Model the fold of this input.
Amino acid sequence: MTVAATPPAPKLELPPLKLGPITVDTPVILAPMAGITNSAFRRLCREYGGGMYVAEMVTSRALVERTPESLRIISHDDDEKVRSVQLYGVDPVTVGAAVRMLVEEDRADHIDLNFGCPVPKVTRRGGGSALPWKIDLFTSIVQTAVREASKGNIPLTIKMRKGIDDDHLTYLDAGRIARDAGVAAVALHGRTAAQFYSGQADWSAIARLREALPDIPVLGNGDIWSAEDAVRMVRETGVDGVVVGRGCQGRPWLFGDLQAAFEGSDTRFRPNLGQVAEGVYRHAELMVETFGDEGKALREIRKHIAWYFKGYVVGGELRTRMALVSSLEDLRTALDELDTESPYPGSDAEGPRGRAGSPKRPALPKDWLQSRALNAEQSADISAAELDVSGG
Done:
């Protein structure tokens, strides 16, 4: 992988991120993303730079029931320094049981709770980014999870959004409740559920949360597409670290850029087309190891193709073929047809990737916004929100 120099920048005076007994020397967190942050992708990211790499989100109910898929999701490579797991749940008892399982069976070194999912099938049942609106439920879940995690001296963090929409913001209340419950850190995605991934992340909200919680680490998430974005977020908001999601899709080397930038280095990864092709093939090989099924692995790699080759000169017919490969041999044949000397295309390969969606009125349970406390009907229905979905 070739590197290129950008105008030199002074080293960020940002100390390592402390999460209980864990020290993250490069204060960068890979956000959990469904179908993406499996062990194969986490390994690719680790090979480029430092940080903490969170597994795909797992529902607490599935984990307690020990479904094969939930156990796969929380599996980690032997050399993963920090085994980081993100849980999703809406029932304090089930979330507590899931955390207890992780602690007692020594399956995690760090646990994060997801309160950021904007997907309608989650929010319409009161889960994800809709849940902090109900202060009693949110408080009970966080307190229960922290209590169970503390039995194993495992730091527990939360990731959330600003709120449901601009008229129903929850992040300041939720941050204070989480802080008082004993969480190790709070991460904020600077969008509401109504925004989905559209528009621009509100870094000023991240700065307000940082100011409101001076006694615990606050992490910022949203619109970090480059190392320069991460540096700018730290300087503008005062956060203790950054959480990177969609910006690294098809660009695991972004973590190398981030580490370099945080250390004051001006080197950046600028891969030519041949180097990207080798990265894709290695990703596919690791996916085969992860799933133990070449067909499934190649089906999984298809969604990454457009991200990897964003901005590069690749013919439409070849792109289509690569997005339909069913074996490593097929993938190798297609990749060998690329112009491997084609240079890095610059800004065309960077910036937003993935589907942003469009602003929409969030789907919520009946009368959800009438009170910040659960009523009897909502209490009876909310457990249906524990679905196998992810986001945030």
